[in-house]
User: What shape does this take?
Amino acid sequence: MFKTILVPIDMAHVAEGKVNIDIAVKQAEAGAKIILLNVVEDIPTWAAVELPANLLETSLQTARHELQAIANASDMPMEAEVRAGHSYKTILDVADEKQADLIIIASHRPGLQDYFLGSTAAKVVRHAKCSVLVIR
Ligand code: ADP
Assistant: This one.
């Protein structure tokens, strides 16, 4: 059983994220904290000049709204964190910052079953300081 569980959620694949949330609830000890995390990828400077100035802020606000709704739908209280950054680095940074003792992550995005581990999942497994549960 774990006391601080980080569940990174790709907002393009919320159904898989909800499966991982259910697993987190089962892995949580009494009084545990579950933190849902979505990382909105930073827009590279070379691309940003062609895009609306507030695109990143709008994306962050939309993700915050959607992730909070997912957190509110659970019977167990959950934190919803949305950060801008690089997905795997930000997942590892938030795990350290929140002193997570477990990260629950999907092995890859749906439809890519040929890959044993997706790029984000592979880097999280390799570099995390805490336990990682990979859901296939
Ligand atoms: P693929 O390489 O097949 O796209 P990934 O390794 O990127 O697969 O995704 C696997 C899992 O990593 C996702 O289901 C999710 O748990 C996590 N993840 C990927 N991208 C993000 C993101 N931007 N924010 C939060 N979690 C993410």
In short: Residues 8-10, 13, 16, 37-39, 87, 105-106, 108-109, 112, 115, 118-121 surround adenosine-5'-diphosphate (CB under 6 Å). Strands lie at 2-8, 28-41, 78-85, 102-106, 131-135. Residues 41 and 85 are 5 Å apart (CA to CA).
